[in-house]
Design a protein that fits this description.
single chain, Rossmann fold, 3 domains, globular, binds 2-acetamido-2-deoxy-beta-D-glucopyranose, transmembrane helix
Length: 553
């Protein structure tokens, strides 16, 4: 079952692919594609900003490009790869999942014989009494029912069931990973179980609710101290993994006292030409600042307000008023690095700077390297950037000799778990068992000069014939595309059950959890599900194994 895999933008979670070595596959990928000449999606260097610092194609891709100049491909450049994408998936391999036989073993006293029913010998005329969700036997029954129902995922932990909406329902949460996924993340689900009791008091699970229906089992994580004053990480930090579906608490860190503020050392970047640029540019610059702060053992004072570039906005205008937390996991950043929001910082600074004699060191030339600032004793180092591009880009600080000294801490940046939650809801509706195809069309297909073959290569007929050998008839196929009219892909419907992002609108519309959480985060103002979010989610639904092929830094 290798055939499907050489199509670089096709992947699947199917059991047949078990045991395949993703890296070996990627290694063979480009070559095979070239030989066979099945070119659907190409990467054309021209689509990158000439000096896009983020994309350093691997040698293989470069070779591939120069040898087939007519290829009509494009990479998903629009989405930033973040820390969790680079985590070796094998970091979780050591965790053993819960086998159904494990549950049986714990169930010493249950005489249920492995089914999803639970027999209680003494009925005590309790026919109509509520189900006791806390009963360990009920717990075991629910675990068994869950493991048997969801074959394509592995379970790592079950939470104790709690009462659901009424006397005959229980809610239970669990942590899982798709059997086939290459993500380093864990996922959390919690569902509502309907339990019935028969005449002889046998309990059985008669229904399991949809994804995230067991709201009562959704517990908050224990509060951790805010990230401020955290000692910069050591290299041998313990690996933390995202848990998608866990409650997010990304409130801003607060400074507890004057003395802790005045003892602190800070770094802030102000001004510059990075605003409203692409998200790649934003992160490349932000991570330079964060890298410098870590190198200097200082707290980074950051601006959480982001300007969304017109390339992602529905208005086609740059849009101010976005927030770092719309797109990235601030909770993770706050917990693993020392950061402070600038509004809070300036308040405290103005309060205490004079009284405590806090010094400020202003740096206006990006050529002053972090190494030269290592001995600065002032409380605050402020890098100020001018108005002339490109010398006013933050990332210029990390160029030259600094490059080998200051590392960009990619592992501190994860995608927003609220967005990832939408991704896992989609995957869950597809039972974690689907193929996906990434098709770039949109305006590019119309530009025949720049993309002479794109229209033809992504025409439904060509696609059908290309996919024919790789994806079995009748499969669920998720199509990630920038083609505005999904009816364009109607011909594929005869063979496959096709799915597009917009089919899942309810996950971000006004009644969704995402919407209400974002509104709360945004001080009561609704947040639009913008172009960058769309494309983040769309490309994430794609199985993870391809991502290792990107080579940053
Ligand atoms: C590129 O396209 C031109 C014109 O369509 C064709 O003559 C040429 O052989 C193609 N080159 C490759 C490498 O496919
Ligand atoms: C896990 O990945 C790392 C590289 O990221 C590699 O060095 C190591 O050998 C891998 N371990 C296993 C068990 O595959
Ligand atoms: C569960 O354990 C049994 C016996 O140890 C084993 O045969 C079976 O393959 C395991 N199931 C999975 C999904 O690993
Ligand atoms: C309890 O709730 C479940 C699902 O919400 C429903 O199917 C069931 O009929 C309810 N039971 C009672 C007794 O109301
Ligand atoms: C109890 O009733 C259920 C269904 O009504 C039946 O499947 C089960 O075998 C019965 N168990 C006993 C011990 O009678
Ligand atoms: C969120 O975390 C902060 C700091 O870690 C804590 O002070 C706050 O109480 C938490 N909020 C909620 C709602 O748990
Ligand atoms: C930062 O702290 C580490 C460990 O405490 C120390 O080794 C390093 O020299 C410090 N760096 C600077 C620039 O002060």
């Amino acid at each position: 079952m290798w055939g499907r895999s050489y199509l670089s933008r096709t992947g699947s979670f199917r059991p047949e692919n078990l045991g395949q070595n993703a890296l070996a596959m990627i290694g063979n990928l480009c070559f095979t594609m070239f030989v066979i000449g099945v070119l659907i999606f190409t990467i054309i260097a021209a689509t990158y900003e000439p000096e896009d610092p983020l994309f350093h194609p691997s040698t293989k891709i470069t070779t591939f490009l120069t040898s087939t100049s007519n290829a009509t491909f494009k990479s998903d450049n629009t989405v930033v790869r973040t820390g969790e994408d680079f985590m070796a998936a094998n970091q979780t391999a050591f965790a053993t999942f819960i086998n159904i036989t494990d549950v049986e073993n714990i169930t010493e006293s249950a005489e249920s014989g492995g089914g999803n029913t639970l027999e209680v010998t003494s009925c005590e005329g309790s026919m109509n009494s509520p189900i006791d969700c806390r009963d360990p036997e009920v717990f075991h029954m629910l675990m068994r029912a869950t493991i048997e129902r969801f074959k394509d995922i592995h379970f790592y932990r079950f939470g104790k069931p709690v009462r659901g909406s009424n006397d005959s329902t229980c809610d239970m949460a669990w942590r899982f990973r798709p059997t086939e996924g290459k993500t380093a993340a864990f996922y959390k689900d919690y569902r509502r179980f309907v339990i019935s009791r028969s005449e002889n008091c046998t309990l059985s699970v008669v229904g399991i609710g949809d994804y995230h229906t067991g709201m009562n089992a959704r517990k908050r994580k224990k509060n951790q101290k805010p990230g401020f004053e955290k000692k910069p990480e050591k290299q041998d930090q313990k690996i933390s993994l995202p848990v998608v579906g866990e409650v997010v608490n990304d409130t801003l860190p607060v400074v507890e006292s004057e003395s802790s503020f005045s003892r602190g050392k800070y770094l802030i970047y102000t001004g510059g030409g990075d605003r409203c640029k692409s998200m790649n540019h934003y992160l490349w610059s932000f991570l330079c600042a964060l890298g410098e702060a870590q190198y200097l053992n200082r707290t980074l004072v950051m601006d959480l307000k982001i300007c969304l570039s017109s390339i992602y906005s529905s208005s086609n205008q740059d849009e101010e008023g976005k927030d770092f937390r719309f797109y990235f996991d601030f909770e993770h950043l706050r917990e693993s690095a020392s950061v402070l929001d600038q509004d809070q910082f300036w308040l405290d600074w103005n309060k205490w700077q004079k009284r405590d004699g806090l010094g400020l060191n202003l740096v206006e030339d990006f050529r002053v390297t972090p190494m030269k600032l290592a001995d600065v004793k002032d409380s605050l180092i402020m890098r100020k950037f001018g108005s002339v591009e490109p010398d006013n880009y933050w990332y210029r600080v990390c160029e030259g000799e600094t490059e080998s000294v200051v590392q960009r801490p990619w592992h501190l940046i994860w995608k927003s778990r609220r967005l990832m939650d939408i991704v896992s809801a989609i995957a869950s509706r597809l039972n974690w068992d689907y193929d996906s195809v990434h098709i770039e069309r949109g305006d590019k297909a119309k530009n025949r000069e720049l993309w002479p073959n794109l229209a033809a290569d992504t025409s439904p007929d060509t696609l059908l014939s290309t996919l024919r050998d790789k994806i079995e008839d009748g499969r669920n196929v998720y199509i990630a595309t920038n083609e505005p009219k999904t009816s364009f892909f109607d011909p594929l419907k005869d063979k496959y059950s096709t799915h597009f992002l917009d089919e899942y609108k309810d996950l971000w519309d006004e009644n969704s959890e995402w919407y209400s959480e974002m509104t709360k985060l945004n001080n009561g103002n609704p947040v639009e599900f913008d172009g960058y979010m769309r494309v983040s989610v769309d490309t994430e639904v794609f199985p993870e194994r391809e991502k290792a092929d990107r080579n940053f830094q």
